[in-house]
Amino acid sequence: MNIIEIVNNGGTILYPTDTIWGIGGDATNSNTVDKIYRIKNRPTDKSMLILVDGYVMLQKYVEEIPHEIWEILEKSIRPTTIIYPNPKNLPDNLLASDGSIGIRIVKKGFARDLIKATGKPLVSTSANISGAPTPQSFDEISAEILQRVDYVVNLHRKTTGANPSRIIKWSKENGVVTIRS
Question: Residue 160 has what pLDDT?
């Protein structure tokens, strides 16, 4: 099977995001989400984020995008994850305990191409066992992770941006709050 079939059939992948190497799969499939939690030995109360390919896809999963968030997304040069309250059309096991979800629009690269090809948002979480350091390159990814996923993207480019995204949380009560700059 190729990577598109694997993602569309609920498989898990190791892939380069626009920031770091990640573990992912179809973000709309609760079984895929469960598999990723098991691969990472990650507590299920520690939510993950999703990647989308643009504004149209973002609107499928978010109830409201306020003007101030549109401005941040339009002006942002570096990858920026926004935590939104009350997402829609996503499995409950992907959401944080407060019901929110982090979503990042991927503007270029392999992850964006894959999202476009599958038509699905991707779960994105760092390619490490929970609690272990985040790998800064493909060569730092543990053999355990490589063996647990269904598919490993094999690119000539083995590095990514190696920096996690900026994280901003939005709520009606508090407006825009920067979590990680």
Answer: 52
Q: Is 149 exposed, middle or buried (0-12, 13-18, 19+ CB in 10 A)?
A: buried
Residue 125 belongs to domain spanning: 3-180
SS3 content of the chain, % helix, strand, coil (to 5): 30, 25, 45
Residue type, 6: I
CATH number, position 21: 3.90.870.10
Our count of domains for the chain comes to: 1
Side-by-side strand order, sheet with 175-180: 151-152, 13-16, 21-24, 122-126, 49-52, 101-105, 80-84, 166-171, 175-180
Tens digit of pLDDT for each residue in 146-168? 999 999 998 644 555 556 788 87
Residues 6+ apart with CB under 8 A from 59: 65
pLDDT digits (tens, 9 = 90+) for 33-50: 999 999 999 998 888 999
